[in-house]
Each structure stands twice: as structure tokens, then as C-alpha cells.
Amino acid sequence: MSENNLFNFELVSPEEKLVSEQAFQVSIPGEEGDVGVRAGHMALVMSVRPGVVEVIRSEGGAVEKIFIAGGFADISQTNCTVLAEEAIPLASIKAEPLQIELARLNEELSFAETAEQKTNLSKRITVVMAMLDAVKAA
Fold first, then answer.
1. DSSP conformational letter for 42
2. Kind of pairing between the strands at 7-12 and 79-84
């Protein structure tokens, strides 16, 4: 495999830089649909929905899956950067704590009084449900 089949990929959350290396292919859950990125991709800036980023570091290599809670992606021919609101390796996410959190959030939502509280809780519920879906699909 030649070097020109690879591009620079970074996945960054407010807490840490999870990935900063070359990749062969990355799949990103865009708001308008999933986007596959390889070297030479056209320039694109897009919103990212909660879901799983799949990273393949070399042709025919293993797939690393990382859950992100939304954010933005900046793609060019030689670089791809995902700025995620939250990012967690999928293998480290367990369903049971998420189910407990989802029940708690739904209860809090039923008692929420302000539009801001309802909006914030609804966003978190969406993220937790996406995490559960990702764990079940893994």
C-alpha cells in the first residue's frame, strides 16, 4: 500500500485527542447521512449526529469503533478532523448503566419545568439512546 492511500485523521473531544494518525478510511455519522472518507476526498464541512465513527488505519485492517455524541467534521483531500462533543471507544460502553441513565433522564424530563431543561434533557436522551443502539449493534 502506498503512502498516498492514507490521510491524516484526528478525533478530538473536549476531554482529549482520541486519535491523531494516518488512516486508510473513516466512516462518519453525518446529519445528512453517513460519509465515507478516503484520501483525495472533496473538501467538506459537516455537522455530525450521535453515532459511531469507524476508523480503518490500513487497507484491509481492523475497524476501530468510537461513539461520538455529535459535533462537526472538517474534511479535505489530505486531512479529516472530527470535533466531537463527547467521544468514547465503543468497546468500553456497557448497556446496563445506559439503561439506568435513560430511565433517570426520562423521569427528570417528566418533571422538567423550563423549555431549557426540556431541551437539554431531550438532547441527552437522544445521545444515550444512540449509545444503546450502537452497543446493541456491535
1. P
2. parallel
